[in-house]
Amino acid sequence: MLRAHGDREATNLLVHGDNLAALEAVRAQGVRFRCAYLDPPYNTGRNFEEYDDTLGDHRWTSMMHPRLEAVHALLEDDGMIAVEIDDTQLSSLLVLLDRVFGAENRISIVTVVRSAPTGHKAKNRGPVHVSDFLLLYAKDRRAWRYRAQHRARTGFDEAYSTWLENPDDPPSRFRFRPLRSVVARALGHASTREASRAIGKEAMDRAVAEHALRHPRHVVRFAQPRYEAISKKAQRLVDRSKASPERVFVLDRAPLTPLVLRGGNRMLTLASKVRDVNGQPALVEPITNVWDDVPFQGIAREGGVVFARNKKPEKLVARVVAMATDPGDWVLDPFLGSGTTAAVAHKLGRRWVGIELGDHVLSLAEPRLARVVRGEDATGIAYDRGEAPNGFRVARVDLPRTRAPR
User: Fold this and answer.
1) Which of 19, 33, 147, 180 is the most exposed, having the fewest neighbouring CB atoms within 10 Å of its CB?
2) Of 251, 266, 286, which residue constitutes the final position of a domain?
3) CA-based angle 29:32:36, to the nearest 5?
């Protein structure tokens, strides 16, 4: 052990050395991880100051295969691996992961939009390359649990146009009004038309959206259910609801939410789509397998380090960690680079092991993580540490005779 930062009882570990040797040493300690994030060399054919990225296909595959097997052995049965890559080695990586983890355990291939089609990239022949790919695999998909993630939605969903006056009453007593008329009266106007004339349509639209976000339990929409996809019991209730459009019908579907019907349509509440974002209520939607909402621009000095090539935003890594772990779980990164994964895990109250062969683990990652421990990193994601031990140890693992490519 070289030294420690912060709480000396903390088990978080920063390792300087070959990652394959380090992974074997970690396995001998009995540590198991719920999430592993890997950002390996992309094999671009360029030699950077921090690492060699000119391996060629065979050497790259030979380097990655045993490391993926070592990570597989270190994951909990309900753990997940996320490997980020561009299209240079995408097909080779997909074959390797299918071989090591099994194609049946593939969770998703996520396209990460990292830049715009401008500058020198736009001069390339063919489509402009603006994305990375995140390959997500479970150790055992049957055991893996997804922690649902959401993203802020731009604009207000105008389908939520109905105000429910009494959401705490039994559904049979629900009373509905047009949302815009409620907002108009709240602004001191007798009608929606009068309000729009007085403040303008754009201001009225903003007022409606703001009012809805402040009172999401009162704002609903009605949508036609997929008749062929619901149960026979639900179909019969839909038919009854169509026959008595002024009544509200309810089908208890515990543990699912009740099916509330009016006029043959299902009632949906805005509250299910509102989350707190930076202290303010915001309309959100589930993330998809295309992530275009994580900016790579402006991250050059994130964490207080300059790492010119292949640095990833903390927000990106945080989303991966959050979908696969709970506070206190172990997170692994055997290609740590400038320390992003460890910094994110630490801020989110997860325990972590980060491994890096290059000397920048000491000149960049260690000082960065020391600042995180001291609470001095105001860049990247916000702190949400909870009760996790606030410190880490630094260790060295001797290189094997055959030096690893990175």
Assistant:
1) 147
2) 286
3) 120
How far is it, in rounded angstroms, from Cα 217 to Cα 165?
9
Integer Cα distance of 395 and 16 in angstroms: 6
Span 30-54, pLDDT tens digits: 999 999 999 999 886 666 666 666 6
- Whether 391 contacts 3, CB under 8 Å: no
Count of alpha carbons within 13 angstroms of residue 99, beta-carbon side: 13
Closest to 258 in 3D by CA, of 246, 274, 244, 272? 272
Q: Are 124 and 134 in contact (CB under 8 A)?
A: no
Segment among 41-45, 155-159, 264-268, 392-396 with least mean pLDDT: 41-45
Number of domains in the chain: 2
Phi-psi category of 236—alpha, beta or left, where left has phi over 0 and alpha has psi -120 to 50? Answer: alpha
d(CA 217, CA 222) in angstroms, rounded, equals 14
- What's the rounded Cα separation, in Å, for the pair 138 and 104? 9
Residue 98 has pLDDT above 80, yes or no: yes
State mean pLDDT over 302-318.
85
275 and 295 co-located in one domain? no
Same domain for 190 and 131, yes or no, is no
Q: Domain end: 256, 286, 316, which one? A: 286
Q: Give tens-digit pLDDT for 131-185.
A: 999 999 999 999 999 999 999 888 899 999 999 999 999 998 999 999 999 999 9
Going by their DSSP bridges, the two strands 13-17 and 150-152 should be labelled as unpaired
CA max distance for the chain: 83
